[in-house]
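Q: I'm writing up a methods section and want to include an example of the input and output format. Could you take the sequence below and give the corresponding predicted structure tokens, formatted cleanly so I can copy it straight into the document?
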Amino acid sequence: MPRKTVIFKKDIIKAAVELVRSDGYESLNARALAKALGCSTQPIFSNFSNMDDLMKSVLEATLDVYNDFVRREFERESGYPPYKTNGMAYIRFAIEEKNLFRLLFMRDRTNEPDPVEKSTFTDVLPLIMKATGLSEDQAAMFHLEMWTCVHGIAVMAATSYYNWDEELASRAMTDTYQGLIRRFREQNSEANDEERH
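A: Here is the clean output for your methods example:
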């Protein structure tokens, strides 16, 4: 009798991420995953209590893929300042990994606790404060507005709504950045003028 092939938890997660990458997260179910692994659904449910448990691991693994992608973008030395590199990496990920991007950044989060990637929001504030001279509260608002632009570009790219190339995305980000900086500096100048009078 041939020996049974052992399928490890990490193999299931890896296959699930690849299934999402190729077919989208809507395609991830026990039957499709078992077919991709070449086994029954038994090993899946031996390693995971249910599909939600598996999806949690897939999200963590996909976030690792994204973080590795961003790290490589910083190592690539594009010539962009760090804050812009972060935004351009997000957009490039949406272009190159549409289905993984959709899983991480376009899924319904109604019943989810605060996502892990929210921590990157506070990590980026010192970069903005250093580059712009804005206060922490202003930097938080600046980032929220700037990220609305970046996320919008990325969503259009991930859904093939508009064909963004690097040069166009870079220009749109620069225009938004400069417009926001001008507005915040004008507000600070007006506030200082009021204090003097």
